[in-house]
Structures are given as C-alpha cells and as structure tokens.
Design brief:
Elements lengths: L18 H6 L14 E7 L5 E7 L1 H4 L4 E6 L19 H8 L4 E2 L5 E7 L2 H7 L4 E6 L6 H5 L25 E9 L2 H6 L3 E9 L11 E6 L5 E5 L4 H12 L6 E5 L15 H11 L3 E4 L2 H7 L6 E9 L5 E13 L6 H7 L9 E9 L13 H19 L3 H8 L18 H10 L1 H4 L6 E10 L4 E9 L5 E5 L7 H13 L6 E5 L16 H28 L6 E4 L2 E4 L10 E2 H6 L9 E8 L5 E11 L6 E11 L6 H20 L30 E6 L21 H13 L10 H10 L1
Parallel strand pairs: 1-12, 10-11, 14-15, 18-19, 25-26
Antiparallel strand pairs: 1-5, 2-4, 2-6, 3-5, 7-15, 8-13, 9-10, 9-12, 13-14, 16-24, 17-18, 17-23, 20-21, 21-22, 24-25
C-alpha cells in the first residue's frame, strides 16, 4: 500500500514541533511545575525487604513547626480488588498497597509514611521523627527461593491461578499460563538434532533520566488538579481516583513533558499521596523522587529464568519447540510473563510447541512495563538457542531463520493469523548487509538475532480544529515521548492536503481531550494517528459540504484534492477551487466553525519484526566486551517520520546493549539494593556505543490508512541475544546468564 503512493508529507523529516523548547530548556517537565503557597512532600521508606508493620506513630512529626500533613497507610481508604488494564496491568488493591504499605512491607524502599513540609529539606529531616515498629521476616529474593517448597510466603491470601484443582495452600506463584499446539513429544521424535539449555536475566531498570515528579492541588470543593510526568494521564486519573475513593470527574490531570518512560511511567507512585497531603494541608503539594528512590521503589523489568528445547531436521526445519519460563513480578503479582510467552517462538513456523509460564512474587519492587515487556528476556533465550542450533547444523544463522520464518497466512503461536509482515524482508536485508559480510579480526565476534513484538491498538480520541485562517489545530491525549506530535501533524497534513508548517498539535489534559489510552504498546502513531486521520477526514467532509452549498451543487459532486474543494470530473460548474483557508474564513456564513472529531478502539495493529547484527571485541585478559558495530533492521510498515523511526531503533539497541553487558540490580543478603544510582547501575553512555546503523523495511500494515505498524518496542527485543551470540562467537563459549560482565566473561574463558 504505502509503496504504491507518492506521499507529499509522510516520509519527510521535519524538525519536531517541541524540539526548540526542549533543546533550549524552556519545556516544562514534571519537577518544573510550581504554585503559590506550595509545600513539599517526601516519603518514608522501609529499611527492610520483608517485615510486618506492628505500629506507626506520626504524633511527633505532626507537632513539628513547618509540617503541614503526615500520613500512613491508615489514612487511605480500603481498596477492593479489580483489574487495572492498560499496559502495566495489575490489581487496584495491590496498587494501593504498593503506593503506601498497609500491614506489611514487601521490599526495601516500600513506602510506609509521607509528610508535607514548608521545604523539602525540612520534610526529609522530619522523617526521622516517624516511629515505625517492624517484625523483620526473611526476604525472598530469587525465583528459585520463591518457588521452593519451603519458601517463606509473601501473601498468605494468594493461591496459584491457572492450575486445576485449585491449590490448598498459598504460594508465591501467582499464576501459571500455557500455550501449546500439535504433539510436542512426536515433534522431538521427528528431530534429527535437539538442543536445549536454560537462561537467566537479572532485574533491570528502564533508566529514564527524569525522575517521577508531580504537583497536586485540591480545592475546597474537593476537586483536585494534578500535574505529573506520565505516559498516560487518563490512567493516572483512574488510578488516583480508585486509590483515594474519589470520583473521576473530581480529578484533572495535566501531563508535563516527559523525560523518558519506556513503560516505567505507566504506573502511579506519588500522585495519590500528593493529593491526600494537599487535601489535609490545604496547600499545593509537590513531590519529586530522588534517583535512589527511583531505583528502589519504582517498577523495574522482571528478572527471568527460562529453559528452552528445540528440535530440527538436518535441513534446519524446526519440528518442535518447548520452554518453561518464570518471571519475577516483584512484591505484587503481575509480571510480563504473558507477553513473554506470546513472543518467544512467534517468529518461527513450527507445528509442535509447548510453552509454560509462571508469574512469581519476590521481595523486590513491583515490576512495571519496560519496552516490549517480557519479550527481550524470552527472545534472549530462544535466539541464543537458535544460534546454537545453527552451529550444530553448520548452517548460516540467518539462513536457518529464513527456512523457518513466519509469513503472511501463518498462524502465530499466540493465536491469530498474520497479515502482511516484513520478517523475511528483514532477514534478506541482513543477509546482504555489508556489516554481516565483512571480515572480523582475532578476538572479535558477530551475532545475529530476530525480534518480535505484537503491538496493540486500544482506545484513542482526536479533534481537528480549523482556525479562521485555515491553519490546523490537532487536539489529542497522548504524551509525546518519541516525536508523536510530528507524526500526528504529518498525517493531518497529508490527509487534509495542507502544508505541515500549518499544523499544530496539542497534547491536552483529561478535561480537554477525549479519553485516550496510554502512550505505550507501540500504539500512538498507529491508533491515535488513525483517530487524527479520521478527524481530518471529518473536516474534509464538512468542507466539501460547505463548498457544495456555496456552489449550489450536491455534496457528491465535490471532490477534495491538495487541500482544495473542486468540482468532480464531468461536473459542469464554472467555479474556482476553494482552499481550506477560504472555506474556514467563510465558515461563519456556511454553518459555523470547522471541527472534526474521531474516537475509536483501533483494530489491526501490525506486529513488528526486526533483525539485529552485533559485532563485539572481547579482551581475553580482562573479560571486557566492547560492541564495535551494531545494525538494527526493522519493518515499520510505513515510516511516517523516518528520523524518529531510526531514533527508536537506535534507542532500543542502546538499552538492549546495556542490558546485555552491564545492567543488573545487586542486592545484599538482607534484600537491600547495593547499586541504586547511575554511578553503580551503569547504563551505556556515548563512549560505550558504536555507531548504530539502521535500515527501515516498509511492508505496509493493511489495517492502517498509511500502512503504519508500531516501532517503539520491537527494537529492544533482539539486542540481548545478538550481543550474547556475538560474545559466543568471539570466545567460543556460551554464557547463559546476563549481564555479560567482565568477571562473568573472564570466568567463562578460564573455565573453557
């Protein structure tokens, strides 16, 4: 579809509308909001990873001069269980207990109380006056410990879901899931070669630069206004209302610009606390996490343990694939086990497969989404073993994947049949890419891996307003993280036939935009873009009606081309084309302002496939690994703004490289995180990364008017395995646990 159309604006690379404000420091982020009379809130956090709260005494802190409010879990209403939905998922009762502990603390850093004071410094000092009596329990810090028969139980009311019959005893295993097709035993009997191994990935953080921040103000009538850094302000409104037992219409949420989220800002932590402190104090309350709190008390990605077994014939055709996988959920149920299981085998045609997954609670912070949640961990295991299979078969690893690649009409492992997809095209590009064919030096290695993410649609709304001079205002409700304002403007300009420079995009608050799901799931350009297109088409329909009335023609006698109403071919009308600007200028005499609307639950989100090529150099004396080359190839359907698609591919690669080589939460025996800061939790900086080459494949998603398929999450799925496979190529030893730190690499070299 997209290849057959010559677009005027789509596919160009204009400067992003918010770019100047952001590079000059004028953009307002979460911590930039201020109000007269504002006070500052801070949180007291548990020094223990697992303990019963026997008593909390706030009496002394409430007497301190300059303290305006102090709260603990006892000051919040009881919240009943209920599914939260959205990208992060979870349960409202668990969310409330995570925001402020009730009877038990479940991780080091769990919030137990909060105060609001004249200054932040005073609030921090006042925390020492809060008296908390704990009964300390042994922490459960790993999947192995949590799933052991004699494990200490985090939640005595939790019984494993998804097993029959229902268990008689509580467990740390929240749920079990299963996907299967064919006869797995017969599939392995038909194999000429079988490979199997197990893989582990650590707890890692999204590493967004801006910490969580909010400002709440509640008036005498009980209506709250909340400014915050979030990926979804409608979800913030819903969660805050539920936790505080408020009506949705009594909370207005205004999103700030956002300094990164990657899924980690789809959850509320401080926002209901700030509203409650504001209600008690009668003043606006600002809360900003410090970096230590971000690491200890916001949602990282799941640690995982996966066992994979693959069978194939001698020509490389897969006969069977099976896996057992367990993901850490943190302190409350709800890991990314479901999407991990959905993704792990999906790139490949295989008649027989079996997938078993477990959602497991441990004494760590409740996990949150992290860019294709669950898929990087799952595909790391699958793609590492596919690499081993290629070696056993003495087969090119890309050729092995081509032999088994899914294509249009194939049923995905998680259910639906694929429409047009570009996985094979990505593999062919990789096979011919100069970065795959050039010679390597001694001590260097090359690895490839495939990535997959299913993408989502969900609910979106948009309005298009035409100003009296013909300029265009797009009103929508998705915080702009990766350049979505530009994408919306480009699609509006293309649809209306007006210059891109004449379009402005406003990310509106919960009172001024129609309901819109979170900026996540790789859904915004696809789903909200579709709403913008439909709202623009509504404008075109109205403009044609106005032109028809002006010319005394029927509406079906009027066409729309290049931003102008014109008579249809064959219509005998001696009139000049009417531009959108002329129609808007005359709107007061033809029916009033031009306002287009659309709301939808978008279907047909095109799945995303990628192929990554990683090249590394390993120092055999120190174990240090340097990524010396990286190539990211991905099907975007249609790149609305190619520079931002390339940026997504490069950003996902950078994060995946960090996950593969450096990043992990390190805890001591008491469950206290030892590296809660960017000095010790080391994300890649510019000097750690090579030039990341990109190649955009465009196989149009037929469910979208311009062929769009989401691109934001797929880029992080393959890098873990690509880097691991490159290290395997360089040192001749397979390392099955991340990160590939110097000590781990050196130990593997010495043990070979």
């Amino acid at each position: 579809m997209s290849e057959a159309v010559n677009f005027k604006y789509i596919g160009t690379r204009p400067v992003r509308p918010d770019g100047v404000d952001k590079v000059t420091g004028r953009a307002n982020y979460g911590a930039d909001a201020n109000l007269p009379g504002m006070i500052h809130g801070v949180v007291l956090r548990s020094p223990h990873a697992h303990a019963i709260i026997k008593k909390i005494d706030l009496s002394q802190v409430r007497l301190l001069d300059g303290i305006y409010a102090a709260v603990s879990g006892n000051d919040f209403p009881e919240v009943s269980s209920g599914s939260m939905g959205g990208e992060g998922g979870g349960d409202y009762k668990d969310l409330a207990a995570n925001i402020m502990a009730r009877n038990k603390v479940l991780y080091h850093g769990h919030a137990v109380a909060a105060v609001a004071a004249r200054t932040r410094e005073l609030a921090v000092e006042a925390l020492a006056l809060i008296q908390v009596e704990y009964e300390i329990l042994d922490p459960v810090m790993t999947l192995d410990a949590a799933m052991a028969e004699d494990a200490a139980i985090l939640d005595e009311s939790m019984f494993t879901q998804g097993v029959d019959p229902k268990p008689k005893y509580p467990s740390n295993i929240a749920s079990r899931i299963e996907f299967k097709r064919g006869d797995i035993e017969q599939g392995f009997l038909e194999a000429d070669i079988i490979v199997e191994s197990e893989f582990r990935t650590p707890t890692v953080h999204q590493g967004y630069i801006e910490p969580h921040a909010c400002l709440a103000s509640i008036n005498e009538g009980g209506q709250a206004t909340l400014w915050c850094s979030t990926q979804g302000h409608f979800d913030v409104r819903a969660a805050s209302a539920k936790v505080l037992n408020m009506d949705l219409c009594d909370i207005k949420v205004i999103p700030s610009e956002i300094g990164g989220g990657f899924g980690g800002k789809t959850v509320v932590y401080q926002e209901p606390v700030a509203i409650l402190l504001s209600r008690i104090s009668g003043r606006p309350v600002k809360m900003v996490m410090d970096r230590d709190e971000v690491f200890r008390a916001s949602g990282p990605a799941s640690a995982s343990h996966t066992r994979v077994k693959i069978g194939a014939r001698s020509d490389g055709t897969l006969t069977a694939m099976s896996c057992w996988m367990a993901f850490e959920a943190g302190a409350f149920k709800g890991s990314a086990i479901m999407p991990g299981a959905m993704c792990i085998f999906t790139p490949y045609k295989v008649a027989n497969f079996y997938i078993e997954g477990f959602d497991v609670v441990v004494n760590k912070p409740k996990v949150a989404a992290y860019r294709a949640p669950g898929a990087p961990q799952a595909m790391y295991a699958c793609e590492s073993l596919m690499d081993e299979l290629a070696r056993k078969l003495e087969m090119d690893p890309l050729e092995l994947r081509l032999v088994n690649a899914v294509e249009e009409g194939v049923q995905a492992a998680y259910g639906p049949k694929f429409n047009a997809i570009g996985f094979r095209e990505c593999l062919e590009v990789a096979k011919q890419h100069p970065n795959y064919t050039r010679a390597l030096k001694e001590g260097q290695g090359r690895g490839v891996a495939a990535g997959f993410w299913f993408n989502v649609g969900m609910q979106s709304s948009a309005e298009v307003h035409i100003n009296e001079n013909g300029t265009v205002m797009v009103i929508e409700g998705n915080p702009d993280i990766g350049g979505s304002r530009a994408s919306m403007a480009l699609m509006a300009a293309e649809t209306l036939g007006v210059p891109y420079e004449k379009v402005r995009v406003v990310v509106a608050d919960t009172e001024n935009a129609g309901y819109t799901n979170v900026t996540g799931g790789s859904r915004v350009t696809f789903a909200t873009g579709m709403a913008v297109i439909q709202a623009a088409q509504d404008i075109i329909s109205q403009a044609k009606q106005r032109a028809a009335a002006t010319w005394e023609l029927d509406e079906d006698q009027v066409d729309w081309q290049n931003g102008h109403a014109i008579p249809m071919p064959g219509v005998n009308a001696d009139v000049e084309p009417l531009s959108l600007a002329r129609i808007a200028a005359n709107s007061g005499r033809t029916g009033g302002p031009l306002l287009g609307r659309a709301s939808l639950n978008a279907k047909g989100a095109g799945p995303g496939f990628s192929v990554n090529i990683a090249e590394v150099a390993v120092d055999r004396e120190t174990g240090k690994t340097d990524v010396i080359g990286f190539t990211a190839i991905q099907d975007a359907g249609k790149a609305i703004h190619p520079a931002y698609v390339e940026g997504q591919l490069q950003g996902g690669a950078a994060q995946g490289i960090g996950w593969a080589l450096n990043e992990e939460y390190i805890y001591d025996e008491k469950g206290v995180m030892q590296n809660a800061g960017f000095l010790d939790y080391r994300i890649p900086v510019a000097s750690d990364l090579p030039k990341i080459d990109t190649h955009i494949v465009e196989v149009a998603n037929t469910a979208h008017p311009y062929g769009v398929r989401g691109v934001g999450e797929t880029p992080i799925v393959a890098p873990l395995a690509a880097v691991a496979n490159a290290v395997r190529d360089a040192i001749g030893v397979r390392i099955t646990e991340l990160p590939l730190s110097p000590s781990r690499v050196l130990e593997s070299i010495d043990g070979a």
